[in-house]
Amino acid sequence: MFGYMGKILRVNLSNAKVSDQELDGSLAREYLGGIGFCIKWLYDMTGPETDPLGPENLLIFAAGPISGTMWPGSGRLEVAGKSPQTGLAGYSNSGGHFAPYIKYAGYDAIIIEGRSDKPVYLYVEDEKAEIKDASHLWGLNTWETEDSLKDELGEDVKVACTGQAGENLVKMASIVTGKCRVAARTGLGAVMGSKRLKAVVLRGTKGVRVAKPELFIELLERGIESIEGSPFSEHYMEFGTTLLVAPMNSIGRLPTKNHWSGVFSKADMLSGEYLVEHYRVAKRACFSCRFHCKNVLKLGNEIGDHPEYETLCSFGSNLMIDDPEFVIRANWLCDKYGIDTISLGATIAWAMECYEKGLLTKEDTGIELEWGNSDVVERLIHMTAFREGFGDLLAEGVKRASQKVGRGTERYAMHVKGLEIPAQDGRAQKSMGIAHATAARGADHLTHCTFLDEVGFEEAIAERFGSKYLPEMANRISAKYKGIMAKECEDFTAAVNCMVICVSAGFLFPPLFWWGELAQIYSAVTGIDMKVHELKMAAERIVNLRRAYLIRHGISRADDGLPERFTKEPAPEGPCKGQIVEIEQMLDEYYEARGWDKKTGWIPEKKLLELGLEEVSSQLRGLGRLPG
Amino acid sequence: MEEFSPARAKIRVLESKEGHGIPLLCLQCPTHPCVDACPTGALRLEDGVVKVDEEICVGCGNCEQACPIRAIWISEGKAVKCELCSLDPPCAKYCPTGAIQLTDSLEKVEESIRSITTLRRTS
User: Number of residue pairs across A and B with CB atoms under 8 Å?
Assistant: First the structure.
């Protein structure tokens, strides 16, 4: 096979068995790789009866057909399992250098099931896998774990591991590769902890074969030219996502004070410009990336990557903190413990607002909570990682924590389907409202990547959708056409996450490459002649299968909602003052674009059959969850 | 490039403890201690470029020890090093930042050796 390695590594930790499974050619064609494989396996091998923290759950590490080639941004890793946070399909994606080495070690993906009696790590080298004792690593943070494994095995190994948070089954625990590249969302670090799997370690000398090397190099050179020629690239290469802080604040979309506002008066202190000027010591790139968007910062004796935009919000503006050094430290602390900064920041923001409103008291928390107090936040990070005191409640995530406390605190829990809302505000950018509401993993901006109205990419919209959608689609505070944009961008994002390429390496941002380019790259690498309409159908199949997984778990239109803060509380200040998210209008448009039933949010049989999902259709029929 | 495999490349990239990437590739230094250390004559200078004769190399690793920046190593029993790809090295072509350049300036080579040696020491 070209592009694909042709093999899946299966690991059962309960009986310490490892085995190779051949990659089925039709799976490759229908589900492409990366997120596509993950969703297919989750659908086939887990379900409503699966306990996310039980041995029956899967933990999947997947690469894709483009991983490990020289395509810019082809270093992304897809991790999946049933999420302990949402109880639904959990998937998370990270950069770094880990995913290409799944392939260099001989595999397209690693599927782990079962539970070990004692702490172990998985070591994979050139088509050989071994389950090894990790009792000496248990209790170490992710940075210590990575250092220790490299001391033991050599500096050329690639490591993905979980920290104390994962060991302590903190629901928002993450999986960390290369110390600072994190598959953070949906709590898959807790799945790792529940399996007593401390780390996966890779070493490999295999190669990724390309079917049409000359064509691939031609496409690559053209791609590099587009990237270098884009007016957005230079700024992005310099600052990465931290460049978003200032512009997002200026459009009123920088979540502040538990998403109450989108404007933070001290945003300058959290900007990429400030971080680069005061703390940068080096630049860093993920595998094979032209964008090299990471800045390495130094603070005291420590060095590590800059906090991303998300963290500058979740531990900065959203907690009313304007101390950049604290946010840098908090980011590293969360990376070390293996905690999702988005989820923990949002859960702490909830606690602070509830404390301010008298819904939580010192009796509940043990410490006084006040906006902007970074010392308190730092204590809460430690307490959450070790589930100490009030941290035990925070470790459950904002949905469960607010349900446990009750007393009206649920109203301030900023989540959708149990996953905390990231650093966007749908009132300031309507497309983000529909994205948060409908993303399968819970509140998310990266399932849909609706970035086209962020700064109004009119040209890209005209080219991708047609000029009849202008000016509304490019207008971030117009709800019109955002359902259509969300559908198309969600399909495309799914396809990109199958390959697995970074969404921010010219596909979704900046908008340089679209279906045509992706189909060409895929065909050149794999030798499978993939037409644009076939690629679109594969992406749509994956998105629909993911939805079907949710429908099996009882999800319907009623769950595709937003907290009332976005739908009933008009934005209090800033350029979008007075705006709310017109969620019902956008949902109607989104379901219609998807061909889903507007009343239930379910998938009609016709749609499932069109996508070749006959079995899914009969299953949903059996559950009584096919519309009308 | 029909197959992508960093393990087979004649350049490696490490990371310093300070977060810098360290490209390890032979800088064709004028002192070439690897050539002097080779017991079999498998390493030879050709037009200023140190080349490996795989027929003669016995994989002893003396060159690896002798190189101040560890830009030569043993893989599958033979010494591997950069031989400048017929003066059209793709690593330089595809380097996104210009950190890798083809140059005939002795000063630049000496400066690179100094900085890589320093970075290696700190890592």
Answer: 61
